[in-house]
Structures are given as C-alpha cells and as structure tokens.
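User: Mind token order:
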Amino acid sequence: MNSSLRSTETVEYCYSFAEQSCMKANRSSGLRVSLYLFGVVAILVTVVGNMLVIISISHFKKLHTPTNYLILSLAVADFLLGCMVMPYSLVRSIENCWYLGEMFCKLQSSFDFMLCAASIFHLCFISIDRYYAVCDPLKYKTRITLQIVLMMIFTSWILSAFVGFGMICLELNLIEIRDLYYRQIYCYGGCILLMGKFCSVIYSLISFYLPGFIMLCIYTKIYFVATKQARAINDIARQTQAIKDSKNISSQTSERKAAKTLGIVMGVFLICWSPYFTSNFIDPFIEHSTPRIMFDLFFWFGYLNSAFNPVIYAFFYSWFRKALKNVLTFKIFTTDSSRINLF
C-alpha cells in the first residue's frame, strides 16, 4: 500500500542534482497563479501608494513639516520593502525554493527584518507625535521640533538596521540552535530563518511588543483626551445658542472621526503583525514545530501593513488627496507647482 502511494507521488526538488536539496511546494497551477496574482497586487499597492506619498511630501513645500517628515520616512521604508523584499519573498513563499544563493538569502532577509522593524518604529514615533499634537497642543511646536523628528527618524533606521543585519548577518538567531538547524532543518536551495528562544524573545519585544504596547497606551490616551475635548466643545455650544447647532455637529463628527481613525490605526497594525510575532515568539518553545506555510502566511499579513500605511497615514488627510490629484494630472511639472496651497 505504501509503495503504491509513493509511486504515484511526484516529488520535485529545488535542485535535482543536490543530495540535500529542498523540496518544491506541491501546488496546482491554478493555486500558483492565484497566489502570484495576489502577491503582485500587494506589491504594486505597496510600491505605488508609498511612492505617491514620497512624491507629494517631497514636492510640495507646504508639506515640509516635522510631522510629514516622519510620514515621508515611513513611506520610504515601506516603499523599499515593496521593491527590495516582497518580490523575492513572493517566489520563495510560493515555490518553497531559493535560487539566488545563501549570501543573497542573508542579505535579503536582513533587509526584510530591517525594513519591517523600521516601519513599526516609525509608526510608534508617529503615535508620540500625535500624542503631543492632541494632548498638549500649546507646547507641541516647542517639543516636536525638526531636530527631535530627525532624531526619531535616525533612531528608527539605526535600531532597525541593528535588528536586521546584526541578527541575520552575524547569525545571532542561530546561537542556541546552530547544531539543530544544520543537522535537521537546513537544505540546499532553501532560505529558512529560525530563532533560538533568547533571540526570539528579544527580537519580538524590540520589534513588536514594546512598540505595540507604547502605541496602544498612547492612542488610548489620545482617544480619551479627544473625546473629552469634543464633549467640552459640546458644553460650550449648549451655553451659546447662536453657535449651538454648528458646534454640536462639529463636535459629534470630531468624536466619531477620532474613534474611527484610532480604531483603524490600532486594528490594522495588530491584525497585520500579531499573528507573525505571536507564532515567532512561541515557535522556539514548541521545538520549531510551526508549519513553514503558516509562517509565510503570517509574514505576508505583516507585509500588508506597509500597503495599508499610505491609506491610514496619508490618504485620510485632505491635503494628500489634493496633492494626489496634482500628481496624477501632471500639474507638478508646471511652474511653481511646489507652492500650491493644499490646505
């Protein structure tokens, strides 16, 4: 019975001439086409969306503010992720093979971890910026200066580079499991990343749980402060009959918009990244038994956060919609187009 089953199975290897070659993923042509189509769409949305943010903030002088520089740097990280990481990861995830050599595997993986971490760190610093803008608006301009924002950007990139290149290129992820990896998991033609317990805990804390906790606390505080401010405006409106109706409408709209925006910000971030970092945190403690297909699926959920970032942090702004219109209609090539008032 077993021999007949083995005879009907067709096992394909990444490299047929190698003894320790990885096996190709056994997927139908229709499924492969569907997965490639989904991946290409995700890559295009990520690249085009963040490129539009980069062009808009770089071109229009009215957008040259400390806050927008944070959004610009975030868009650069997400744009590079879409260009330099996602296309290679798409082939690796679908085919289960890596054809570009071990050195490029380490390089691509380093950029992968670095740019994902950079995106998360930028989101964290943007939440800090929004905290001072909403909760302490009178001191906002003195506390969030250009120098402070540049320091935030510099910290995001340096810390993410340490997370990515330091961990992968120096093989810090294999310190505890080097023998296990090369004896039981490694195969020729693969690009598999595993972490020991200590590395997994440190990486998850630095790259997700700590920034995520900070963001959750900050946005919770922002929500309550924004709600309190909206109610205060409502109380003033009730005492001033002449502006009652307009103020009531404005405050109610503001309260709903604050709740909706903050819900989307935290909801998308947690939905996209929680599955991967939860499984990555647990995997070393269950003897690395998590299926690789599950890791790939969860990592692509995380990638989608970079596609959604332009929508959340830029498309919600009216200035961006006006900038987008000028970009798509090629008005940015006209004289003095950089001085167009977008507000």
